[in-house]
Amino acid sequence: MAVTRFLTLPHRAEGQGRELTHRPTDLPRILQKHSYSKMCPSYNGPLSAATLQIARDELRETDSSREQALQQIKDWVRMNPRIISCRQDDSFFLRFLRFKKFSIPMAQEALERYLLLRQTISQAFHNLDCHLPRMEYLINNGYMFASPGRDKQGRRWLIARPGVFDPYKFINEDMCRIHGIIYETLMEDEENQVRGFVHFADGAGVSFPYLTLFTPKEAVRIVKNGERTLPMRHKEVHVINVPQSLKYVLDWGMTLISDKIKERVKIYTSIEEALKQVDSSMLPKEYGGTMPMAEMIELFKQELEAKRQTLIDNDKMEVCLDLFPENAKAGAVSALKAGCNQGQSNFHCGSFRKLEVD
């Protein structure tokens, strides 16, 4: 099994004169600064020929641009005083480069903000363990799962059933964590990074108490940060069974997302109407497909299990919080508008040579 490598940079905590240390059991997983160049092999990714062509056409990814971008972003992480420890595998960096279509400054900004928010909102985004009892309940009952296989465009379909989430039994932290587990698991697959995702959501069972899970400010920050920072390509969104009493909430939510994503959202009055527009083969039998939902869930649990340790190891990534402004640590929208150059550090995004794209 492949071992995820980390780069750990020397960091002196406030009032201390020693470097950050790790337990001996961690050392095989740590990519030390002095051996950086020797332990970063050239990219030999798993993408199919068809997916490579999509990456070239849609994301400006070529062998040349990929090699240059990976080296630049690794150099940037190594020299960035804000980043203490970070994964060093190509697949991890590529999810941000592909997300930002190989714009080095934008990928750096997304990566840095991703690392920061993982740490400052650690109660929701650390310990992404699918074995936690509360997570097991949501997974087993089909709160969200990926349909097995891919559609004709090679995309994975995410089936969401928010009505499974009992707001009297669970809290907003649980909702953030289950989404983190599922999204992080799927983003470990490079085909998903390029091909993207189709979302199918059933709003049945969602009621007014759901509105108490997040304050309006929290909801805005989640949507805005998720769209700018979470490295996923959302290709289509299909929604059925929206409760009439909560339609105004959905309308408000639509005002928060970008026009690009907004154009990809389709809302249907019934499953029958939806089936005229969507690929039913990707849906559970209960929604007009062929495979029973329970079988889909069991298959997806195998995917979650395969990446469980990787997600747990991600908690070793760390930034120096003292070098970030308070609004950035809180995930404020104003920090998103300010960009990656905000703060006390003199280290700027995009400080390396311009990427050559052939």
Automatic annotation (TrEMBL):
Q: Which PROSITE patterns match?
A: CRAL_TRIO
Q: Which domain of life is it from?
A: Eukaryota
Please give one Gene Ontology molecular function term for this protein.
phosphatidylinositol bisphosphate binding
Instruction: Name any one Pfam family assigned in the record.
Output: CRAL_TRIO
Ranges where the CRAL-TRIO domain occurs: 135-295
Q: Which GO terms describe its cellular component?
A: membrane
Concerning PANTHER family, the annotation shows:
ALPHA-TOCOPHEROL TRANSFER PROTEIN-RELATED, CRAL-TRIO DOMAIN-CONTAINING PROTEIN DDB_G0278031
Q: What is the name listed in the Swiss-Prot or TrEMBL entry for this protein? A: CRAL-TRIO domain-containing protein
Q: Which species is listed as the source?
A: Nezara viridula
